[in-house]
Every structure is written in structure tokens, then in C-alpha cells.
Amino acid sequence: MTLLEFLASPRSVRHFTGRPVSREQIDQILDVARWTGSARNRQPWRFRAVTDKAVQQRLSHLGQYAGHLANAPVTLVLLSADDGHLDTAFDLGRVAQTISLAAHAAGLGSCLATLYPDDNVAEASRILGLEPGWRAQHAMSLGYPATSHRLSPSAIPAGRLPLTTLVTHQSPPRP
């Protein structure tokens, strides 16, 4: 598989085997993630690796599409700096993508969830005992993908729009 094929191959994984993910694997993935670029190198993220099933269950109710967090071997909560910078959300998206790719390279699956609305973000912060200045708006399930990735029907369409729908090439004007 070429690098470009690898980059196009990860899919969101919401169903996992019971096989545990080691702390070393988690740390290896997050060590890769910490090298993700960020605006002005602020690195407005911290990570909380959760394996406590009761905590994962509570977090899974804090977003409309967060249910997969409950049954994952690991829930990675992506903490964002509550700093008012408009690019913090962009930086969090970048680090989430890096985590997803690093997990895929390690043979693991992942799926991002958004915790919302603000009351749920505050509840997640209470559940996790976060220090002031940090918000838990995103979390990722992480684990070994179940053999059948279609254990339940999905209301979300599969596939991708064709490149011709997404891209317009604009050339310099002709003299």
C-alpha cells in the first residue's frame, strides 16, 4: 500500500473487539499526535485516556452521536484550551486526524465524537475533574475493530463525493 492509499484508507470504527489496548500503544499514538502542527505552536490540547467503563458510559450520553464511546476499550478525550483563540478548534481537528491515522497505523480503529451542547461540555469537565481553562468538547473511541464493521444499520450515508464535485481548478486568465 502506498502512503497515499494508506491516508485514504481509515474509516470511522464504532464497534470493537474486547481486546484491550495497552498503555504503551496509547502513549505511542499520543506521542505521534503531539507533533501535530498548531497555530503559533500553541498546542492547545491535552489528552485524557479513559478506560473506566462507568466514566465511558457517562461520557457516551453527552453528545447525540457519542454512544460508541461506551463500548470502546479506550476513550480518548481531547481537551481544548478555553483561550478564546478562533483557531483552537482547527488545531483540535488537526490533532484528531493525526490520532486517527496513528491508530490506523497501529492496527486500531477510532471514531471522533463531539460532546455538546455547552451543558454537556460542562458535565464532561465535571466527570473528568478538569482544571479550569480546559474544555472536553471532543472524544474518540479507540480499539481493535470488530470483525464485522456493520453490526448495526447506520443512518449515515457511506462513500465519498467524487473529486469532480469537490474540486474546481482555476487557472490564470489568458492574455
Number of helices: 6
Name the helix and strand elements from N-terminus to C-terminus, one letter apiece. HHEHEHEHEH
- Molecular shape: globular
CATH superfamily: NADH Oxidase
- What is the gyration radius calculated from CA atoms? 18 Å
Q: What's the CATH architecture?
A: 3-Layer(aba) Sandwich
Task: Please give the share of residues in helix.
Answer: 25-40%
CATH class membership: Alpha Beta
- The overall number of domains is 1
The span between the termini is 43 Å
**Overall mean confidence score, pLDDT:** 93
Report the sheet with the most strands, covering strand number, pairing sense and barrel closure.
4 strands, antiparallel
Number of strands: 4
Sheet with most strands: strand arrangement: 1-2-4-3
Instruction: Give the percentage of residues in beta strands.
Output: 15-25%
Look up the CATH topology.
NADH Oxidase
Helix- and strand-based class? alpha+beta
Which residues sit in consecutive blocks of at least 5 with pLDDT less than 50?
none
Describe the structure.
By secondary structure, the chain is of the alpha+beta class. It has a single domain (12-148), classed as NADH Oxidase, CATH 3.40.109. Helix content is 33%, strand content 17%. It has six helices and four strands. It has helices at residues 3-8, 23-33, 53-59, 88-105, 118-128, 163-166; strands at residues 45-50, 74-81, 109-114, 134-143. Strands 1-2-4-3 form a four-stranded antiparallel beta sheet, sandwiched between helices. α2 crosses α4 (88-105). The longest helix has 18 residues, at 88-105. It starts with a helix and ends in a 9-residue tail after the last helix. The mean pLDDT is 93.
